[in-house]
Structure formats: C-alpha cells, structure tokens
C-alpha cells in the first residue's frame, strides 16, 4: 500500500474552506487584500486587477506544507489527518492563527503584486482594484474532480463581478488565468474579458512604449520556468520571452520549456509534500547554470523556495528593471 | 513500496532518465524525418475510436475471419482467459513467452507456472520474472535494475557475464534450448487486422519471432483495443508505436501465420468502458508518457495500478478494473499535461484523471471513507 495523505480528507478540507471563507486554506479574506494600500487604485473601474488570492496564500501554503512534509508517512500521519478532518468539522476559519506565518513572507508575496500594479501604472494601463471583488477562482474544485462545486463557485464569482459592472479582469497567476480564460466560459455564462498583466505589457511593446534598456550589459541572461498552465495549456510562453527580448535580455531555454515545460510539483504538495519537494529540486537542477531563474506563478515560486532554489518572480525581475 | 522509499531509490529515476535520454531524442528525430508519422497517428486514433464504439461488431467479424485459420476463443475477463489458455496447454509443458502487458494484466505467467515450466524470453521481462516484480515501463520493464543487480539476478539461473553484452549473449544461449524444446509459444499482439485476421507483432530482440514460430503450438492473446479494420491500419499502428518508442524502423515486424495457432480474444472491461475513459483505448502503449512524466520519473511504477502504471496506467487500471486498491494514486498527478502533449494519440490523460477523481469528490457524506469498490462501468452509474 502506498501512503499519502488521504486525498479524501484534504479534498474535503479544501472544499469546505472555500465554501466557508472563500479560499482553500480558510484564511480570513480581509487579510489577503491589503497589498494595495497607498496605491490609490479606483474601486469602481470596469477593468480590475484580479489577483485571485494565490500569491497572498503562498506563505500559508508553505507553512502548512512544511508541517505535512514533516509527518508524511510517520507514526503521526493519521493523527495529522484527523486534525485536518476536525478542522473541517469545527474551526475551519481559524486555521491562520496557529500557522504563525512570518510577516516578511507575507510582505514578500504582497510585494510581488504591488510590483505588478506599479508596472501597469507606469505603462499607463487604466485599471482599478476592489478588495471586495478580489475572489478565489475556485479552480481547486475543478482539479480535484468536483465539477459541480466548481461550476457553482465560478457562477457566484461571475455574478458578483457582473453585479458591480466589471467587464474585464487583469490576472496575475496561471491558475486563475486558466480558470477565467478557459473554464469560466465553459462552466458559466461569463463574458468577462481576461488578460494577464504580461499580455498587457506585451501590448505596450507593440505600441512602442517599452524600450530596450540602456544598461542591458549589466543584466544577466534569464532562464524561464514556464508554469504548466501558461506554457502548455494556454500557450502563452512566447509572451514573457518577447518582453524580455525587447528589453534586450537574453533568454536561455532548456528542452523542457514552453509547451514541453516540466512541472515544479506544486500541485501535489498537500498529498505528498516530499514528492512535491523532490520534483522541485530536480526541476531546479535542470535549470541551474542557465541564467537567472525566473518563474511567474506563486505555486511554482513557493515550491521552489521551499527547497531553497533561488527563483524570482517575473514581476520582481521587471519591477527591478523599470519601476 | 511507499512513496518516501521510492523517493530514496535513485535507480528508478536513473533508469527512466537513461531510457528517456536514449529514446527521447530518437523519437524527436523520427518525427522530424518522417512527418507522415503524425498523420498516421491521427488516422489511427480516429480508426481506434470508431472500432472502440463498436467492439461487438468488430469482435464478431474478427472471430469469423480468425476461425478460418486458427482455433478461436473469447475471454470475458482475465480469469477466463487464464482458464482457456490453461486448458489448451494442460500440464507439465514447456512454455516460452514473448513480453506482453496483457499477459501481465491477467496474471498469466504465475497461473501457468503452477503446473508448467514458463520462460519469459525478453531479457528485461525475464529479469522481472526472476525478481518477482511488476514491469517498470511498458517497453523497458527492467530499466531500474543496475548491471550489478542484473548479474546477481541472472546468476540464480547460472547465467554469467561481466557486462550487458556478455549477459545478453549468455541469456540467448540459455533460452535457445528452451525455444527448441518448447511445447507452446505465447505472445500478445500489437495490432490485429480484422479483415485478414492477421496478428502484427513488433520487436527488436528477435525473441518474438522464435516464440511464435519454433514451439509446437502458438497462442496469441488479442485484447479488444488491438482490433483494426485492415492490414494497412494495423501496419500503421505498429509503425506509430515503434516510432514513438524511439526504435524506428523496428528490427522485426512479425505476422505469424502457422499451423497450431490459438487466438484468445480478451475483453476484460474494454467493451464496457464509459465515455470518459474511451480515449484511453486508442493508446498504442508506447510508454512515452511514462518516461516524460515528472512524477513517474521519480517514483516510477509505485505510482499506478497493479499492472499498468504512470499516466497511461491510470486509465488502463480503471478500464481493467484494478484501480480500486490504488484509488488515492489519482491525486499524485499534478495535471501538468505533459503526457497529453507528447502522446502520439494526444490522449487527454489529465481529463481522464479528473474524471476518475470525480467519484471521490461527489460522494455525499464527507465523513464516509472513500468508496472501496469504485465502479466505472457505464451501466452501473
Ligand atoms: S497514453 Fe499515449 S504516450 Fe502513453 S503509452 Fe499510450 S499512446 Fe503512448
């Protein structure tokens, strides 16, 4: 018998958390939407930055995964499972306090979103942000096979956005992007336009707004770890490359990139955290030595950070270059 | 084997990556040089789906054609197939076998071993037989064994050699005696042309040729998904399979036609597959998805069902009704989609896995344990 955390228990926890708190970890929503403070973004814009909450949830995921990892296949594995189950039963929304997520980590992930917003502002992209409308996409329902649950959640998100007159969302992670671009039209009556922030930047290049950097010499080459949803499912991997090339930055690719990209292991982090870690290690090894290692997904990023592989987010790279 | 144990077992990864290194570049080269391969694959998928939707019709036709030149049997499941083959053979016989996943699926070797002497004649499969394991990979079953381990395992038979070449030679000598004395040869089938009732087999070692021709009688197990309307499609099928394995053109293509042939058609769940799983039936079992899967590359066949493992193994285990013990396994897939991308048949394996996960997600009471027996048949809901 192979041992992994009982999917049934994890799946139930996730489903109930989403139903009760709106996000898969049961963290209080208001804690996840503070990143924009001081940026003075309009709440009423028809075009909203929609984080989908995944970057903000990353430090919590890391903490939980560390705990699960320590007890995987140990004598207390069953006990941990029971604990998760009891959470499902009773104190679902109070998970956050026991996790003790370091403040710096929360600030780090919030910082990435801030950078994205700042880059867009700098590019004169017209957009707003409404913390009350920044919701979780529900894609985990879909991934664990609960299509009905997904359709229900997605319809609710679409209804809320529609009621507030939102016409377009700007997404910042591959999972939320895939949900909005591919799944929402299939499972709901969504007509909301979706663009990722880097597609908007790409438009900027077309209009000649993004200029090659003057001090290109000093920027090291970059190697991109394409998240599976961007590289394979949405076939968007050429866009960040175009942006970097137009800035004069060399991108060095391995065979397993773009449509052939290799998974970082993030999505199995709660079922078998040790497997997930090993996947991240091997993927990092494959990319090592090619250039500055960059990804553009909070799940990839935090999984790589968990194994101490020195990845940065695409937004950090761009932000460092011209914000 | 548990996951953590598999994570520590570096030889799984080393073996699979060695195979991928050897074969992967060859597949890419084949596709570049022979662009028609992709057209063949597309044509084949359409034909296989069409046949899969009408197995009754095609099986009936296959049986009638085959009866003109062989003794023909139909087995509903693995147990029945073993019984039929056991009855044909009797006891106290010497049997040589070609490597066949379908025979693994029905547990034929151990069934026959109870009263006969049975030898796997594919080198990798022989190692699997002697070490009592399940195949690591559909094409390369023993990739995870080091040379040292192979020397030790073959040593049990008194086969000696200092390296792979010497061992292969020694195994060949050892098996030659078995081939010459064998009463029965048994093989699976890579493709079956219904119109002509021809069995198509593809290989690189030459042992299948001997298995199917030298023994006094020959038994072929033909599982339903191998049925194709005619010779042309059957040939295209083995071309696609070998090109996506990497070894193309293959060293041997066998179309055994001889006296003393028995053909056992095997269903074992295939004709009752529900819609969500149908696509898996177009699989040519090239094993490319296994080599390219980032989870499989690390824990190998720990991830999968009783016989079939890795991305293709999930669908096949469900089809052949052996997934229930490894149900939790569905959740070790990251849905990364690489398998679909590199599959010659473009089988949407992530969709199949999500489809199978559904059974768990929809069950009413969250505090009930997952259902023990998960039924995937269309008429049972
Ligand atoms: S699923 Fe596709 S890649 Fe995998 S063995 Fe079958 S045909 Fe080959």
Please describe what this structure looks like.
The complex is a heterodimer of chains A (323) and B (381). With 323 residues, chain A is mostly helical. Chain A folds into 2 domains: 7-200, no CATH class; 212-322, Rossmann fold (3-Layer(aba) Sandwich). Chain A has helices spanning 7-21, 54-71, 77-89, 95-99, 103-122, 139-143, 147-163, 174-187, 197-206, 228-233, 238-246, 273-287, 298-306, 314-322; strands at 47-50, 168-171, 193-196, 222-225, 292-295, 312-313. In chain A, the strands form 2 sheets. A 3-stranded parallel beta sheet of chain A has the order 1-2-3. In chain A, helix 13 (298-306) links the parallel strand 5 (292-295) and strand 6 (312-313). Chain A is globular, with a radius of gyration of 19 Å. With 381 residues, chain B is α/β, with parallel strands linked by helices. Chain B has 2 domains: 2-32 and 273-361, Fumarate Reductase Iron-sulfur Protein, Chain B, domain 2 (Orthogonal Bundle), CATH 1.10.1060; 53-266, Rossmann fold, CATH 3.40.50. In chain B, 46% of the residues lie in helices and 12% in strands. Chain B has 17 helices and 10 strands. Chain B has helices at residues 3-8, 10-33, 36-52, 55-66, 78-89, 101-105, 108-113, 123-131, 147-155, 164-181, 207-213, 231-245, 288-292, 296-299, 310-319, 338-342, 349-361, and strands spanning 71-75, 94-97, 117-120, 184-187, 191-193, 198-203, 217-223, 227-228, 252-254, 261-266. In chain B, a hairpin with a 4-residue loop joins strand 5 and strand 6 (198-203). In chain B, helix 3 (36-52) crosses helix 12 and helix 15 packs across helix 17 (349-361). The longest helix of chain B has 24 residues, at 10-33. The relative contact order of chain B is 0.14. Mean pLDDT of chain B is 91; it is low at 369-381. Chain A binds chain B through residues 1-4, 6-8, 10-12, 15-16, 72-73, 85, 88, 141-149, 228, 232-233, 259-263, 265-268, 271-272, 274-275, 278-279, 282-283, and chain B through 1-4, 7, 13, 294-295, 297-299, 302-303, 325-326, 328-338, 341-342, 354-362, 366-367, 369-370. Bound molecules: iron/sulfur cluster. The site of iron/sulfur cluster (SF4) has 13 residues of chain B, from helix 13 and helix 15.
